[in-house]
Write a structure and sequence with these properties.
With 384 residues, this protein is of the alpha/beta class. Helix content is 40%, strand content 9%. The chain binds 2-acetamido-2-deoxy-beta-D-glucopyranose (2 copies). Belongs to the 'GDSL' lipolytic enzyme family.
Length: 384
């Protein structure tokens, strides 16, 4: 009997020691990064949707995912998105989509972004930013209640390991990439003047959403501005015929000018939030310039003409990526052979190769205000 309990003690000791050693290893790994964000909560549209809209409404079909996951992975891309490279950079798992009910793990964050989402309704998707923020509030409340309830049990069930630690919400990085669909929906349904006039309302609502997150305990924000809408092959396809419409890189000038105006106002809103919320940290990320740098140097960087896209097809009307059509014996809609040579995957969404190029440049802070790497986004800029 005595001997048995010693054995037990010994085994227990090894277990504790082992866990402690493991914990230390994890800690020092994280310790090499200044902030050690334990989680990421993301809000946005298809640029950062890792499976939300695919689970909720429109399943994303092959060949999406072919380059990296080997199967459709809820992303409108052949592989990883910028948000996936953010997760890799922070040494966290890829984010599960909040709306996905199969195989999800929210221990290190959740993704509320869904394809087609805009800041404000109406739009292409019911899951506008306001809805995403409500979902986060509910997620936080319910996961905290469940965590606390399960922690009282002596035998902790497995499900607890998929839940966020309540104390980690305020240490997490909150990332936002949204607004592109407000502009493109505006261009489709209203005049250019109306789109311009709508910008203060859109950026105002985005800023309001950040205030709500702050009230919920969020402190660290990483805000992407909107990309060069006029360089998306779909914008170009529909607008290239109007004379004088394209710039020297083949992008629709007007759409890009409006996107830049949106970004000026967004940057201004973020500056105001900084003074309004001195205990929060904001990094404004100029994704527009990173994407435009890629597009204007595409050929030098080994990409094909950035107006071409890899998946889906256009010959008078377009066939979405994942669909095929046979016209006069010719099959349209097959993906290209080398997605990594295309900036655009499907005419709207960037390829994994493009996302990687952009991520490599934005994550080290070279397109950010303040210019700090994402791992340091909890701090004031270091004095030089
Ligand atoms: C298919 O064939 C018809 C009849 O020859 C022709 O009018 C039409 O333009 C063709 N369509 C395409 C997409 O080639
Ligand atoms: C960030 O990374 C890019 C690509 O590797 C590099 O060209 C750039 O100089 C880096 N910037 C900083 C501030 O480290």
């Amino acid at each position: 009997m005595m001997e048995d309990s010693w054995k037990l003690f010994y085994v227990f000791g090894i277990l504790v020691f082992g866990l402690a050693a493991q914990w230390k290893a994890v800690k020092s790994d994280v310790g090499s990064m200044s902030c050690g964000f334990p989680a990421v909560y993301n809000f946005g549209d298809s640029n950062s949707d890792t499976g939300g809209i695919s689970a909720a409404l429109n399943e994303i079909l092959p060949p999406n995912g072919e380059t990296f996951f080997g199967h459709p992975a809820g992303r409108a891309c052949d592989g990883r998105l910028i948000i996936d490279f953010i997760a890799e950079n922070l040494k966290l798992p890829y984010l599960s989509a909040y709306l996905d009910s199969v195989g999800t793990n929210f221990r290190h964050g959740a993704n509320f972004a869904t394809g087609g989402s805009s800041v404000r309704p109406p739009g292409y998707s019911p899951f506008n930013l306001g809805v995403q923020i409500s979902q986060f509030i509910q997620f936080k409340a319910r996961s905290t209640a469940l965590y606390n309830q399960l922690s009282l049990n002596r035998r902790i069930p497995l499900t607890i390991s998929n839940l966020p630690r309540p104390a980690e919400f305020s240490q997490a990085l909150f990332t936002l990439d949204i607004g592109q669909n407000d502009l493109s929906y505006g261009f489709q349904h209203t005049t250019e003047k109306q789109v311009l006039a709508s910008i203060p309302g859109i950026t105002g609502q985005l800023s309001q959403a950040i205030l709500v997150l702050y009230k919920e305990g969020a402190r660290f924000f990483w805000v992407h501005n909107t990309g060069p809408l006029g360089c998306l092959p779909y914008s170009v396809l529909y607008d290239k015929l109007k004379p004088g419409n394209l710039d020297k890189n083949g992008c629709v000038k007007l759409h890009n000018e409006v996107a830049m105006e949106f970004n000026r106002q967004l940057k201004d809103k973020v500056s105001r939030l900084r003074t309004q919320l001195p205990f929060a940290k904001f990094t404004y990320v100029d994704v527009y310039s990173a994407k435009y740098a890629l597009i204007s140097n595409a050929k030098k960087l080994g990409f094909v003409d950035p107006a071409n896209f890899c998946c889906g097809s256009f010959y008078g009307y377009h066939i979405n990526c994942g669909k095929k059509a046979t016209v006069n014996g010719t099959v349209y809609g097959n993906p290209c052979n080398h997605p990594s040579r295309h900036v655009s995957w499907d005419g709207i969404h960037y390829s994994q190769a493009a996302n990687m190029w952009i991520a490599q440049r934005i994550l080290n802070g070279s397109f950010s205000d303040p210019p700090v790497p994402i791992q340091d986004a909890c701090q004031h800029q270091r004095k030089m």
